[in-house]
């Protein structure tokens, strides 16, 4: 009971963080309010929709729980009026986004396991759920997806590790909450550590020169 | 009977307008004839394919009615030989495109309702059906999607309003034609009015300075 | 028996070629190792995943045969350490990629026929299977899709012709191998001939001036 409420709250924080990141990119790209709402919505639901389409769970969850749409619309409204203040709160957005990454990635892997996919496929789908929305946001916004760039701090790597933890624990019949919440916290923690310590991913050698 | 023929004609005008807009963007981007055909095809069917994949109606309609493929191929041929003349007819293309937006958006919402989705989800899917093809066209063509940009006239807003009208009427058990045709005309009309009067969407405040 | 092994080998060459082309583009775009792995994976599986989602075969093959994931990961490792040498082997990559195009396009059409789609839809899906991964690679890498550009040698055209051959033969009840392998060789051959002889597609007239 308490844990369900906790999950809902954490999930909401993740949705809100992704929504804000989409709305704020739209402000930076000087889009209008429709551009903000579209980018916020796609960033919020993109990863989960791709996951659901791939596993064949259609219509996707985002279309069955449409009151979730309140989240990107509220984020659009907030960013519309208060984006200078939010931009100053850039660190808070990074923290929220890291929470979203952890929650979405781990949830994606857990759902894929429930749908009978193999462990390796479940890790892949978890990562897709975590990073898919941000990739769509960047492509629509006309930027190279942050997750691919060498100047970005570790993002996919903690997701891969955390999803592997979740999938391993679920394969060992560990309880869902015990298999997901610590792994989500691990992803969020490593991501924040990477931002703080400026950890970046390995780069092919010749390009160093 | 008459109304079915009318619907077919209107739908055809919408398909043709979207196909032409894709082929003409390919000309502007200096693509070859394959680039023209690919862009025309994706613009014509993109929104409907996304809608069908999301609601789980696979293979999508565009693959079941493949003679529709004649439309983007004919548009490619016409644009290949006559694009200077068509470009001079830019206003005609804008009118056709507005008709396509209205027809596709309203049809998308009606189909979503028939498939049992909730009213809010049906509005979303209608808008996706209307604007999806154009977004794919712009992304593949290397431009920022027009629907997101502040310098574009109202496009998504009339679609949202028109789909809301259709969904409301369908929820009240109004006949399909009565619930869709006026709403499609409303979308087309508001869009054309916006182009004519240069109505643009609201923009976040700080960027005015 | 022998023919099945042959098919597997040819398919593997195609997967590996597409994987390398994705990893090498990531190197050229100065992405990090995650960017390489993501681009390699999407290029390898993108076309087939789109095909499977469109015909409704979910989860897509790539998620059911996850050991295939070894291919893009190995390509990433190879490109990470040896990309200067591979870049010098650019011709080998072009040959591999042409093999991949032929195999994937023809396999895509054959699968669509098996799933009961119409011949024209099967040709379309074959072409999508062949060119889809490369289009996603280019969009994510921030480049205009090569297949659309006028300065690219024939790529989609041999795929369209070869898929038409396969679909025609399958419609005439020709054996699967006889309907696919020669058509795949035809696509690969025409593509390589086009690269060698610098054949490009037709371009709309006014742009010549």
UniProtKB/TrEMBL annotation, chains A, B, C:
What is the protein name stated in its UniProt record? Trimeric intracellular cation channel family protein
Query: Does this UniProt record's set of keywords contain Cell membrane?
Result: yes
Q: Which residue ranges traverse the bilayer? A: 6-26, 33-54, 66-82, 89-108, 120-140, 152-171, 177-196
The record gives the membrane topology as: Multi-pass membrane protein
What's the short name of a Pfam family annotated to this entry? Gly_transporter
Report the domain of life of the source organism.
Bacteria
Protein keywords: Cell membrane, Membrane, Transmembrane, Transmembrane helix
Tell me where in or outside the cell this protein is found.
Answer: Cell membrane
- Glycine transporter domain location: 9-83, 95-169
Q: Which organism is it from?
A: Nakamurella alba
Q: Which family does it belong to?
A: Belongs to the UPF0126 family.
- Write out the GO cellular component annotations: plasma membrane
């Amino acid at each position: 009971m308490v844990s369900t409420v906790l999950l809902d709250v954490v999930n909401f924080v993740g949705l809100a963080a992704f929504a804000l990141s989409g709305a704020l990119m739209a402000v930076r790209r000087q889009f209008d309010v429709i551009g903000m709402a579209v980018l916020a919505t796609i960033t919020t639901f993109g990863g989960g929709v791709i996951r659901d389409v791939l596993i064949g769970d259609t219509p996707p969850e985002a279309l069955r729980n449409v009151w979730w749409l309140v989240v990107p619309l509220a984020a659009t409204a907030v960013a519309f009026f208060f984006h200078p203040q939010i931009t100053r709160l850039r660190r808070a957005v990074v923290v929220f986004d890291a929470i979203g990454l952890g929650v979405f990635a781990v949830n994606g892997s857990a759902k894929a396991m429930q749908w009978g996919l193999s462990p390796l496929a479940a890790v892949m789908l978890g990562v897709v759920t975590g990073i898919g929305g941000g990739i769509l946001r960047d492509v629509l916004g006309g930027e190279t997806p942050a997750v691919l760039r060498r100047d970005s701090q570790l993002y996919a790597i903690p997701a891969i590790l955390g999803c592997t933890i979740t999938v391993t624990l679920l394969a060992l019949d560990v309880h869902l909450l015990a298999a997901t919440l610590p792994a989500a916290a691990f992803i969020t923690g490593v991501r924040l550590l990477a931002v703080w310590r400026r950890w970046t991913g390995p780069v092919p050698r010749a390009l160093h020169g």
